[in-house]
């Protein structure tokens, strides 16, 4: 009761609580040294101090675990009996011979029900963190712009970048290089759809998107399935909620651009996943 009262005072930061706790600890330690001297002939100060600290440590553990002070019962037993039994059992560790073995067994029996919830909580917290991290990774993957590639014969395609803003695929057609750029886009709204598409393709100084098609007459034309620059080096179109354009690179001709443009298809998801996982692992290693 003294210990519980002292803990209450300490929790409420009452000066008398700290005084009562100190008196209780000192009194307990002195009483144990007397008992140890009577049984073993030695005071065993260290063991006495550790055993004196055990009850307040147990009360603190009970408060952390259940949120209440163990006034009444501990594991179904009267609190005073449970605390006294634990201290008495562990005191055997300071005794010689087979008593020490009995104390070790008691320590295991006392520690097991205390440690199992701790380890279980730690394991559950680690599992929850892993689930949250996995969900975050999947959310990041789902947020990527879905790239388009090509199934044109004689070409190889490589995903070079992907994010929530754009995805870029490099195309090699017999040594001639092209790029397929996919970005999210909405509709043209109230604007001329042809002029809006040309604005996306070649841009303007104002970049408002409300230009007329006449303003693009010398830079952009409507072609089969989309829009192209006058020189044919870039062709673009809308695919659902995405804007995709094919750009000529080193050695590529307008015919190469149109051939790739007319063979556009979804980039294989498994290859996007492989690219994502590779870059995720690379970023993690770079952060270590």
From TrEMBL:
- What keywords does the record list, in alphabetical order? Membrane, Transmembrane, Transmembrane helix
- Keyword Transmembrane helix applies: yes
* Transmembrane domains' residue ranges: 16-36, 43-63, 75-95, 102-123
Q: Which top-level group of life is the source organism from?
A: Bacteria
Know the name of this protein? Uncharacterized protein
Q: State the organism's lineage.
A: Bacteria, Bacillati, Actinomycetota, Actinomycetes, Micrococcales
